[in-house]
Structures are given as structure tokens and as C-alpha cells.
Amino acid sequence: MQAPDIWCLNQHGEIELxxxxxxxxxxxxxxxxxxxxxxxxxxxxxPLLVFSILMSFIVYSTWAAFQNxxxxxxxxxxxxxxxxxxxxxxxxxxxxxxxxxPSWLPFSPALLILPFPAGFRLTCYYYRGAYxxxxxxxxxxxxxxxxxxxxxGERYFPLVIQNIHRYFLYIAMLFLMILAxxxxxxxWFDNDGDGSFSNFGIGVGTIVLCVNVxxxxxxxxxxxxxRHLVGGAWNKLSGSPIRSKCYGCVxxxxxxxxxxxxxxxxxxxxxDIYVRLCSMGIWHDFRIL
Length: 289
Hints:
Number of domains: 1
Number of helices: 10
Shape: globular
Distance between the termini: 77 Å
Helix content: 40-55%
């Protein structure tokens, strides 16, 4: 006995009969080995691309965090190092390196900062679907064999940490306010060389830092957890116009959550690169105003 015919679209958009699925083939199905599949498309391209981009970002951000140099130029501050809690920078909140910090261990402000935004992205609902395929191979792609026989879900380590995403959201919103302050400071320059930073102006770096805040805000305020907090748990929003408006705004951003996730990831890395290369004298910050 034959199963229903399989119809699909060919490369020209025309419907064609691809073949018959025989009953004996169905009975002979078994659990696929890792990477085994009947798919004939380049299913591996998307997870490979995601793996390459995320791994490149991880490697670069880790390298940048350990440099502890060239993270500021004029009044520009790299988002990887914001806020500077201790250090010799004029951006430092609490002055020089604390005495209790081991002298043999180089102190880098980024090492105290990066784990928090990293935790927000690591537990993000969108990024889970991306790196589960690319890093965990869970599964590598639809209808492709996994390297495991069972499924533990998010009840066990390490995936159980995904459940604290909402708390990383609160920290991420705090960081947005700090980065917005940094973007504002990027409008003030030290034209006289006295360290006052009292001259208003707009440089390319000013725009870079402002765009960084805009993209990170679009990504953060489109978070699934925030959408639930502002209205997702309510059965009726018509009686709460402010809540309903907020829910609509978050929903609109959430509809493009993947786009904001990748754009903000690229731009936050570019922001650090821009400040770094200007500080090293490789790039010149063009003053627009």
C-alpha cells in the first residue's frame, strides 16, 4: 500500500511530483545519526554561518576585554568597557584600581562588565534557537540527526540558566541608561587640551555611539520577556490604554527581534573597533560640527 504522493515546488516555482513514499520505507525508519538526513538542500549553511559569526564575536570581545587599552578617545568610551568602575580613565566612577585587586592580575574594566550583556544575549529567546542549532546541534537543522539520543530540555545544567533571562533583562535596561549617558558625553570634546570636555560638537564617533544605543534599545525593548511583563499576562488590555500602547510598541519591535539582535551585535562590536582604532591613531574621527 502506498502513502499519499509527495508534491512540492521545484526551483522554478512549479508544482511537481517528487516521488512516492512507500509503506515499507516508513516502517524502516530509524533514529538518524548525527548529521544524517534525507534533505538535499544546503541545510548546514545557516547553522555554520551563525556559528562563525557568534564565535568571531566571542573571540573578538574576549580579546578586547583583556587588552585594557585603547577603549576611549576624546570623550568616546567603548561600550565593552562601560561603565569604567575603576581605572586611570577620566570615565572612572570610583577612581584608580582598588588596592584589594591582585597586582599580578591585569585589571580590565571590561571583565567586570561584559558578563552581564553576554548573559542577556545568551539567554535570549531568539538566540537560543540560533545557537542551539549552531553550537549544541539540537538539532543542527529540521529533520537532521542530533548527536544525542535523549532530550533534557531546560531543566538541567547548563540550559537551565535560560530561565533567568528576565533578570538579565532588568540589568540590560540599566546598561542602556549608562550607554545613553556615554552617547551624550560623546557630544562634548576637549578642544583646548585641558581635560574639560566642555566644547559641544558632533563627530562620526558621536553618531556611532548614538546608533549603538538605538540598536541595543530596539533589541532590548523588543524582548519576549518585556512583552510579557507589559501586557502578555493580561487577558484584556482595553481598560488599560497606557499598558496597551506599551504592549503594542514592544510587540512591533518583537516582530523584528531577529533583525535587531544581529544588527545590535554587529554594531556594538563596530563601536569598540571604531573607538579603538581612533585611540590608536589608525582612524581619524571626522568632526561634522
